[in-house]
Amino acid sequence: MSFRANLQYLRAQRNLTQERLAMLLGVSRQAISKWESEKAYPEMDKLLMICDLFGCTLDDLVLGDVSRPAASASAAGSSNVDSSAETASPLAASSKTAGIIAPIAELAQDITGYDEHRRRFALLIAGGVAAIVAGVGIGNLFDSSNSILGATPLNDFLTFLCICVGVIAGLAMLIPGGLSRTDFKRRHPYVEDFYTGEDRSRELRLLVIGIVGGLAAILIGIAVTVYADDMLGVSDGWPNAIFLLLCAPGVFGFVYCGMRYSLLNINAYNKAAEDDRKEHAGEQDVYVKLTGAVCGIIMLIATVIGLCLLFLNPAALRGDWSAVGSSAADGAMFWLPWPIGGVLCGVAALAIQLVKDYRERK
Length: 362
What we know:
Blueprint: H1 3-14, H2 18-25, H3 29-36, H4 44-54, H5 58-62, H6 69-76, H7 83-105, H8 114-139, H9 154-187, H10 197-231, H11 238-262, H12 266-281, H13 286-311, H14 314-318, H15 337-361
């Protein structure tokens, strides 16, 4: 039997779909399909993973017949087998079978560690954003117009220092979070949806708590700012610091709970991973390429028009650069082609998507 036939036989024996096998091996479903259609061949590490998963040898998988492993073993082994070995063979077989079935029994579980990654990724991103906001908030305590230290030359330095510490702390969480996400998607291009309805309901309740709590914190901060301005006559310094320090946990609640809930959509994860794979392999859909080309042309034309309005208006041609942008005739509206181009890109993308849907239905 060929490798293709052996792989199909093993999948059928274990009742494995291409999607589940892809998840176990850390490849895409299309890779499994190519292996079984003999359009591609797995690398050695994937072959060893297949052997370990199904409990077969590399020779049987690639050159032999996995449907008759006993025949291969008897041909390679000694013909002298005693009665005690024969008695023990059912136990050994059952033990091998248990070893084979064990990974299969866990297929409905999170065998890729996606849930732990989801929680950690949401925590790092939310924590990074909140740290930056909190750093700016603490920096407002040393605002030069109303510093808690009074008038001192250190105010500007302390403000800058607090903002820098907040940004550094935020980046220390945002960058590892983004890199871990990229690495996880590379190692697991397909993940089986193992979440239950109860899991989604629990995360939805957490999302509601995060939104309500975040809004409450921000509204309290606004109330403090308004009170300080109207009743105490203080508009800078500590009121802004309190507002931003209350915004930090509010933003954390929005981002953390929102990301935890949105990352439950494993279908979107799999689709994004597959789109990335197609992009890197040059297998993008023709409509995706067409959309990118049309939008690129639109924005290039918008850029040319914007630059012409900026550098070829009457004031610029006279050499009076101080008057550039002073009126519509002198290039004040040079920025307008870019938002118009963005709107036209949206229209073009919708039109191309409609054409694609129409052709797929025919």
